[in-house]
């Protein structure tokens, strides 16, 4: 495939392309899911192909093929140029790329145990042990457990001279415990909802979860939630667990700071942003405690890599500093709108060889504050604590949001009290982050993988991550579904 | 797009190395091969110019091997070289050997005829220049101070399902869709069209429709959240219908007690004016004549005259129910179960959207919803935002634009009382497939908060 990638690059340039890049990508996936003591599915997939992106007269063209023959690849390269020429007829302003030094390098995410080298029998044993442990709990209706592994190998070539090979291995694992009583359904997930733990790494990260030991506690909680009261509606002091804060960061910080959204590229589908390019350095995003960072280098995080799909190196870049908006997620195409000296901060990724790269979140973190969760609760006195996402929704400018969680706990006298079912909370982005008056410290800070971030047309799914420690927000509207 | 359709014979040849496993290895009880070729072009525009334009082609082969005792392994490969298919089949058998027994495995689809729906050659052959020209035609309708964004997609989906139990079916589906959002200084407007052919799309007409919305939506005012009478245009209605189908009408969720149909099938839960059928072969939607297991798709009445009538099945849930599959199986392995992906809400006799508005004393006209998600699945409580054209209706007339609102509302509750359904219907894509729905006028719909823009 490497030779065909080089052929594609040469053919596109010969056919008239200016800038050209080619990605030859192979991705293997394995998903194993069980329900109770029954296999729900074992799936292995491998996909490979070549995607060719060209700039002709300032307009983009892209073509991709899975047929790995010389004629098919040559045809795809010529099609990419044809597409760009057609696009140039509906152009207002030509694309201008921020420069990037071409790199020749190789990179691989580290792991101890290759998840693709672990036998299916071992994976099934781990998952069945987890569901069996959960089903020991009286009243539990369903226990589901799953593990996933992804290995992406890609070669990036550009007409600027870049030649980068990367291998990224990611894993996931978790258990879901569901209790049903008539029309009431309650689920608790460990260690998180939506496929559990997700990160770059190896099988050791899945076994370290100790699913069988942890599952019964979550099963008991699912059963207990069936008879728990609804969370009373009204303004409350809200403490969010790190797993829910991760999605809060995702929806109300990650997406609105994507510069392509700000510039209107996603207006017809995912939406735009309440931010403008001029807001950097001026707009108060949150309280002075709030610091948010784009960090593509975080060890073991799901969105970690060495170079993006434009050959831009990974890095750590501030988005919000002491509550003030400081930057955006950018690409080679969008960075120049911030000034002639602006450079891409390396967030462009495609979810497949057949997709074009888009600005994606990679890893966006809420930086830790001070103290432990217990100290935070003790200092809070009265309020509510919500954990583990169940639903999410936000408007097309990323202002008005509403989230649902799996469980809420009353905070009374500085300690967690009774449970509430179907808790929800809602707010507006900058008001909400402005109400943050405490963030727990590094010991409570964790990275949470989000494997299902959607964007683009045709739709793409990115695997991203967010680090967060529990944090407190004042006067937030809470309630119950 | 790409090198052209594979054709039935080539698809069958691709499946052969995997199907051959059935005769070679006595442990193999069955083999299912799904061959899929997708070729599509998408021209994406924003700021009134083309910004992204892709032309892609892929061929996938997915092999499900059933070993003795109902043990199943699934392996998929892209590319479809004969050697890759044979290797994937061997790998699937290796997975199946390690899988636990499943004595309830219902077997693979037997031979059964399927209807043929001709694909549209013009849609399959649409070129990058054709797509660019269509976008240009839409942009010609856009005022200078308004930015247009959207996507025009054309393509062909070719699917073949071959089983060792005798099923061998192929189909080629053409599809096209154009969506646009026009954004002005204080408002936005939306229009969408789609179907099996580019002939169903008039780009200039869509541009004019979205232009009407954006111009009517200027300077929106905030209205109080609460319970309002509403007129929902087809894209908004489509969101409710597709979420209802998703949450309630999968045979698996119903059998596991996780859906409102688990305890309420047969109940007159909705207004008698509501009839929802799932029909992939209806001319008004885009669907294949068989499912991912090779079973012919049946027309299923999910809701008949307000009564929760039936759920859809794949082979597993159909065997459990004793009814057989309705042809709604998803690709294996499938942890969701069957899904109703082509729900159609029967039109009424209420005339046009304007006629529905004329019958509304005071309420809100909603063009579409955005980022809708499930808050509570059994009660079908959803939350989402209005978007791209929300208007105040007073004395049967649209009087002014309003800022977007968040709704938090049970779909079952909303559809329990319907004042009127329009005669016209519209196609809308949401979730996993497309629906065709009329506009609705409902006496009560709950909005929980507002936002700061129109």
* Overall shape of chain A: globular
Gyration radius from CA atoms of chain B, angstroms: 24 Å
Category by helix and strand content of chain B: alpha+beta
Flag low-confidence runs of chain B: none
Binned, the helix content of chain A reads 10-25%
What does the average pLDDT of chain A come to?
96
**Major β-sheet annotation of chain A:** 8 strands, mixed
By DSSP (H or I, 4+ residues per run), the number of helices of chain B equals: 12
The low-confidence runs of chain A, each spanning 5 or more residues with pLDDT under 50, are none
Write up what this structure looks like:
The complex is a heterodimer of chains A (481) and B (454). Chain A is built from 9 helices and 23 strands. In chain A, 21% of the residues lie in helices and 40% in strands. Chain A has helices spanning 2-14, 70-88, 120-135, 203-207, 211-225, 242-254, 259-262, 373-380, 429-434; strands spanning 20-35, 38-56, 59-65, 104-108, 142-158, 163-181, 184-190, 197-200, 234-240, 292-295, 316-321, 324-325, 348-349, 358-359, 364-366, 383-394, 400-412, 415-421, 423-428, 436-439, 446-455, 460-468, 471-480. Chain B has 454 residues and is an alpha+beta fold. Chain B folds into 2 domains: 8-200, PmbA/TldD fold, CATH 3.30.2290.10; 220-454, no CATH class. Chain B has helices spanning 8-19, 21-24, 82-98, 121-124, 128-139, 203-216, 234-248, 251-255, 261-264, 315-321, 353-358, 411-414; strands at residues 28-46, 49-67, 71-78, 147-163, 168-183, 188-195, 226-232, 276-278, 300-304, 307-308, 343-345, 362-376, 381-394, 397-401, 405-410, 420-430, 433-450. In chain B, β2 and β3 (71-78) form a beta hairpin. In chain B, α1 (8-19) packs across α3 (82-98) and α5 packs parallel to α6 (203-216). The longest helix of chain B is centred in the first third of the chain and has 17 residues, at 82-98. The radius of gyration of chain B is 24 Å and the shape is globular.
